[in-house]
Amino acid sequence: MRILVIEDDAILRAGIRTGLALDGFTVDAVGTAADASAAAAASQYDALVLDVGLPDADGVELLKGWRRGGETVPVLLLTARNSVDDRIEGLNSGADDYLGKPFDLDELAARVRAIARRSKGNMAAALQLGPFHLDSAARELRRDGTVIPLSRREFALVETLFEQPGRVFSRSQLEDRLYGWGEEVGSNTIEVHIHKLRAKLGRDVIETVRGEGYRAFRE
Amino acid sequence: MTSLRLRLFALLAAATLFVWSAAAVWIYLHTRAEVQRVLDRRLIEAATMVASLAENSDALVATGQSRIIAVPRYNRQLACQIWSLDGRLVGRSSGAPAEPLATNRPGMSERDIGGETWRVYTIADPGRGIRVSVGDSLGIRQRLIRDLMMGLLLPAVVGLGALAFLIWTAVGTGLAPLKTISQRLRQRKPADFSPLEIARPTQEILPLVEAIDARSAKLEQMRATERHFIASAAHELQTPLAGLSTHAQIALRTDDSAVRRQSLQSIAESVDRTSRLVQQLLALAREESDVDRSEPVWLSLSVLVDALGREFHHALGSADLNVEMTEEAAAAEVCAVEAELVLALKNLLSNAINHSPSGGRIQIHVENGIGEVGISVRDQGPGIASAELERVRGRFVRGKKARGVGSGLGLSIVELVASHMSGRLDLHNQSDGGLQATLWLPEQKLRA
């Protein structure tokens, strides 16, 4: 799951980035509203973590602008302004969730995961697809009750494909989901991961769509 | 606690009593004089009348005895004696004593007879050989005056009670607006700073109402500022605290020692920054509170800058920065409260250090203006975008080019100190880059 963190405070930004990465997220982080708009336009994110107090814009106004422009990406507002009025204003401006500083990293991860899941139409915290049971919060994939050990990238790949079963993802889309900026991606990295996954899950779970990409659980 | 109403009442009552007493004394004196005059005239007329009626002394004497003359008894208060010139009592009225009422001398006289004082008018008629004395008792005169006075004063004394009541009520009514105000003030909640809204305030009350309203408005504004400040402070503390908490959680859960070290490093930085923020908040609060401000003294600028240089020794050394003072600045003395001036210089110097490029030069010099002198701190940093030059003075505002662990309070603090010293803070970008921050002071506060 790839998310964008927009937080002007460098130390906190680094903390969120590292912390969410520990939780299996692919995290990009920027410090200004201008960079955030550029990043959101350039990449596809599953969710945004937006700090309300940015040096060059008010986070709430920025969000309102995005929503007016038709941007539907789920957004979690991160703020030190924690009054009820502030929360209401934040949620009314188009935010999907609201978290006051300081916060617990696990809570942030859970909330981000929840808004991303809801935006894809999945209400349940865990997915059941055939014999597979995918629990994003626990970072576990089970087949018939047995845990299948997966690396961080493999799990992210499974998560991406399983969350929207039947949808075809191109290689670059998958790279986008798995790797943040500045992370080296080899030309055949995705193929390597798919290969390993097929070995662990079985050959027919992930299908190659020639010339287009990959999909799981074709309808 | 004295009551205004009681006080006014006492004053009015005292004034009324004084005027009344003065009037009563005057009336008494005047009445007495008038009664005296009228009764004296009566004595004279009576004496003249008796004298004209009396036969000559020989005839009277011829009767062989003193007899009582049939003087009309229209008034028992009058006593009449007719004496022959050779000293025999020829006749007297019924109320008259047997002793002579007067000496032989004609005219008005007073005499004590049998414990009673008589006022007597005597006329001598040498032609007929008689002397007529007519007198009345002074006691009676005094009783007359007393009765007159009682007739005048009794209603006044009774009226005094009514007047006291009227004054008491009138004073109460007159003070009603004050009472209304005090009631309003007592009833309102501590946080209520709305105008008093007194209907038709009187000319005397209006300034009071206006003063209270102005004070309330000022208090309200101060409270709003304070609340905003506290909210901002809390807000500003949340972010570094969130950073601290996040990194602590990472350090606790990661197995990667490099990640843990990075997090611990960030925690250390966050603690630095948070403690600096708290220090700045405290400094600002202290500056704002106005309490315990000591007297300004003459301070050597170079001594203060040297001390600050030692304080910033590490930061200066690690970035290879030089702080230079012009000769004029090094010789200058400033009249200021030491803690305040140090606070201002420290913030300006700290800003310059944070924004100087490695190996940069920070220059402190004295500027001369019209009626004011400036202490300038110049750096070779990126300066402040001209659009932001005003904004950065605001609290918790950090410029877009801001670097380091600034709290966004430094310039606010300097500005506050400047205003305490009747000065101002000027910020401008130099033509060759870098910021020049000048603390302008009234010229008498700096001497070379």
- The global form of chain A is globular
Major interchain interface with per-chain residue totals: A-B, 22 and 28 residues
In which order are the strands of the major sheet of chain B placed? 1-3-2-6-5-4
Q: What is the helix content of chain A? A: 40-55%
E-strand count of chain B? 14
CATH architecture identity of the largest domain in chain A: 3-Layer(aba) Sandwich
What CATH architecture label of the largest domain in chain B applies? 2-Layer Sandwich
The major sheet of chain A is characterized as: 5 strands, parallel
* Strand residue content of chain B: 15-25%
CA-atom Rg of chain B in angstroms: 51 Å
Provide the residue-averaged pLDDT of chain A. Answer: 87
* Biggest sheet descriptor of chain B: 6 strands, mixed
Domain Response regulatory (chain A): 2-116
Protein name (chain A): Response regulator
Pfam family, one (chain A): Response_reg
Domain OmpR/PhoB-type (chain A): 124-218
Give a quick set of tags describing it.
heterodimer; A: 219 residues; alpha/beta; Arc Repressor Mutant, subunit A; 2 domains; 5-stranded parallel sheet; B: 448 residues; alpha+beta; Beta-Lactamase; Helix Hairpins; 3 domains; 6-stranded mixed sheet; 11 helices; 53% helix
